What we know:
Layout (H helix, E strand, L loop, with lengths): L13 E7 L3 E8 L11 E3 L6 H18 L7 E8 L27 H9 L3 E5 H14 L8 E6 L3 E7 L2 E2 L44 H15 L10 H13 L3 H24 L4 E6 L6 H14 L4 H6 L1 E4 L3 H24 L2
Parallel strand pairs: 1-4, 4-5, 6-9, 9-10
Antiparallel strand pairs: 1-2, 2-3, 6-7, 7-8
Family: Belongs to the ROK (NagC/XylR) family.
Pfam families: ROK
InterPro entries: ATPase_NBD, ROK, ROK_cs
Amino acid sequence: MDQAEPVRTPASWVVVGLDNGGTCNNATVLDATGQYLVDHLVENPSLVTDGPELAVEQLAEAFTNILELTRTPLTLVRAVGLDTPGPASATGVISSKGATNFNQKSWHGFDIRGALEARIGLPVFYNNDANAAALYAHHQHFGADAMRRSSVAAIVGTGLGGGVVENGRVVAGAAGMAGELGHVQIPLHGVLEPDQPIPLCNCGFEGDVESIASLTGIKNNLLPYWLSKFPDHPLAAEPISVAAKKLRGYGENEDPLALAVFGQQARAIGKLFTIAANFTDPHAYLLGGGVVEAAPKFRQWVLNTIRESTALRDEQSAAATFALVADLDMAGARGAAVAALEGVQQRRSTDGR
């Protein structure tokens, strides 16, 4: 973090966004006029592997640090937005079986939102990390029209996360687990080769989107198959986990094996978006993840392939856009802040204040 960078002091009351990850927390401040007070990562260690007590204290420290950095008085803060990896309930209770970064028994069923709220004495609004990123992507894409638009976002990383946003708000679902797009099972016709095994996901499903469109899907399913077709490829000499991480660089150089793999991923996401088109008919289909950081020509090829693989009616094609998610490293904290801002505004409207 560059302490010398200029920071804006808030023009109004504010909310704080906290993005909790496996190694770091990232924090931001959003004022009521819609201005973020920092334009870079502001991180501290999350210490989630040390258990809930220390992890909540680190979140409180991230909160204090970002107020000091932005010269924001505590009295101006109306609420905090928090996101963590799921699965967790809509109110921020970690799954009773644990979650991605919360595998210790002390985390199972732990109310991380309530614990942080009690610690800092302010309302805390919760989303899972993929939904928070999807929410930020939606607002960044639509700007002033965000509250009148809908979107579906697929965030491709180690797994495949995402979110569904309707009229500017995340669709959370009854148990808080809506928008688990990675585990939507898709038709595989037109995605796999005739002799290709059906991909298996770590969740136990066969042929869901994450089993194909994720780094884990590349490592476990796609790359082993395609290396059998390209036995002399340089990546055949690498451990599969190393080869999977190097594959994007080959894709940027139009390597045939890499394009075969990423083409399958793009077509799988296209199948997912086709399902979304018939469920929610969104205004935008958004793509985030490592591909956004790739060379422009390659990432545009991926997005074009997704668009071509999404079966839309003529009326839908005229109304919808396909776009890449920007600022992905800050998307979680910013999306958490957007959710908190909306929550405060909704409460003020309900209370008549």
